[in-house]
């Protein structure tokens, strides 16, 4: 068997590294970036400081922040309009997954003028992504999705809310400035939910069925870093815990090029149907999804248990650890505590079986399995 492994992105990591941005733009002959963010980040002091810093060094900054929490196509078209009407030469995505996904979709849209969803990867649309794209820079402000190191954007249809995936290696950032100082003031709930998303990425990537020992190694170290730091980052944050969470979230997203699994397929329908926060949806579902995966994969769970320093190296001990971690970071154990009702279960199961993540789960998942997992977690 012949395999291909890709780890191409340049990552500048460390406290204060975002201050390198003006010089980086200058070195690359860029002076007119479209800065894409979300309405919350746009009002934070560190964001205003970044814009001020760029402006004071002669960079013409245009900020676009008119986006939804779960981004839709019209967000992308508005951003594209802002890019052209103000004559931009590059795109900087600053924020969590939503902002960076919109930035990446605008990046695609600039030189690909067919309907945005013609490029949907799920219908093979990636083959139409053939033109060059502008220079693209990402700056994460949460430690969770890892979208900054990704090459895809999830954008929903405005009316149907159906999620489409835009994908191409061309959509990778040229450089990532990962500065843990930007994550210092994240509120505890966002830290917990995004952190559990990062843990889910690392665990699902490690268990995913494809052969990818490089991603497996990254995922295990990502799990170790989250084990060491998530509780502290939520309850008593300091620069060390924030730094470990940020690098672990980047590692999770690098690792999940190998694939995700049952937990993300349980989580995605909650966001589509009930607008549940993606990280929260994963956090509540991960103990149940992992329990489902144990039988037949005891060796892999043993390696996860060792990484978590558990005395009992069984899969059941890993599941117990996940419940306890949720308790420590104030995440509920039951779907009913986050707004799911028994009448939602059939629709959720329909959406989950159609989801793109579970085909990479180590074992097959049927619609009946999804229904039972939702009922168990309810
Ligand atoms: Fe995720």
TrEMBL record:
Residue intervals of the Fe-containing alcohol dehydrogenase-like C-terminal domain: 191-377
UniProt cross-references to InterPro entries, sorted A to Z: ADH_Fe/GldA, ADH_Fe_C, ADH_Fe_CS, Alcohol_dehydrogenase_Fe
Keywords: NAD, Oxidoreductase
Keyword check for Disulfide bond: no
Entries under Pfam families matching the protein: ADH_Fe_C, Fe-ADH
Recorded GO MF terms: alcohol dehydrogenase (NAD+) activity; metal ion binding
Cofactor: Fe cation
Domain Alcohol dehydrogenase iron-type/glycerol dehydrogenase GldA: 8-180
Highest taxon of source: Bacteria
Protein family per UniProt: Belongs to the iron-containing alcohol dehydrogenase family.
Name used for this protein in its record: Alcohol dehydrogenase
């Amino acid at each position: 068997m012949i395999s291909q492994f890709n780890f191409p992105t340049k990552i500048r990591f460390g406290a204060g590294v975002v201050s390198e941005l003006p010089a980086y733009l200058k070195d690359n002959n860029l002076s007119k970036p479209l800065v894409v963010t979300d309405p919350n980040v746009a009002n934070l002091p560190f964001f205003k400081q970044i814009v001020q810093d760029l402006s004071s060094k002669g960079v013409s900054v245009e900020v676009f922040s008119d986006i939804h929490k779960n981004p839709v196509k019209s967000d992308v078209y508005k951003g594209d309009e802002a890019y052209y009407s103000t004559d931009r030469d590059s795109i900087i995505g600053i924020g969590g997954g939503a902002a960076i996904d919109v930035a990446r979709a605008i990046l695609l849209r600039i030189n690909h003028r067919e309907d945005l969803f013609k490029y949907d990867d799920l219908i093979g649309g990636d083959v139409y992504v053939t033109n060059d794209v502008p220079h693209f820079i990402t700056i994460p402000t949460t430690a969770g999705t890892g979208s900054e190191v990704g090459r895809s954007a999830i954008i929903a249809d405005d009316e149907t809310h159906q999620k489409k995936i835009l994908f191409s290696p061309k959509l990778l950032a040229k450089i990532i400035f990962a500065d843990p100082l930007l994550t210092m003031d994240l509120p505890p709930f966002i830290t917990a939910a995004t952190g559990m998303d990062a843990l889910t990425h690392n665990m699902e990537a490690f268990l995913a069925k494809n052969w990818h020992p490089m991603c497996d190694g990254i995922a295990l170290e990502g799990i170790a870093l989250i084990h060491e730091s998530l509780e502290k980052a939520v309850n008593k944050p300091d620069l060390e815990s924030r730094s470990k969470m940020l690098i672990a979230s980047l590692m999770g997203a690098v690792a999940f090029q190998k694939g995700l699994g049952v937990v993300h397929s349980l989580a995605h329908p909650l966001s589509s149907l009930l607008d549940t926060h993606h990280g929260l949806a994963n956090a509540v579902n991960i103990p149940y999804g992992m329990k489902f995966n144990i039988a037949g994969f005891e060796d892999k769970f043993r390696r996860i248990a060792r990484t978590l320093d558990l005395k009992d190296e069984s899969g059941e001990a890993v599941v117990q650890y996940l419940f306890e971690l949720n308790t420590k970071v104030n995440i509920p154990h039951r779907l009913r505590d986050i707004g799911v009702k028994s009448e939602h279960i059939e629709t959720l199961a329909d959406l989950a079986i159609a989801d793109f993540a579970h085909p990479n789960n180590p074992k097959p998942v049927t619609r009946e399995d999804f229904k039972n997992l939702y009922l168990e977690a309810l």
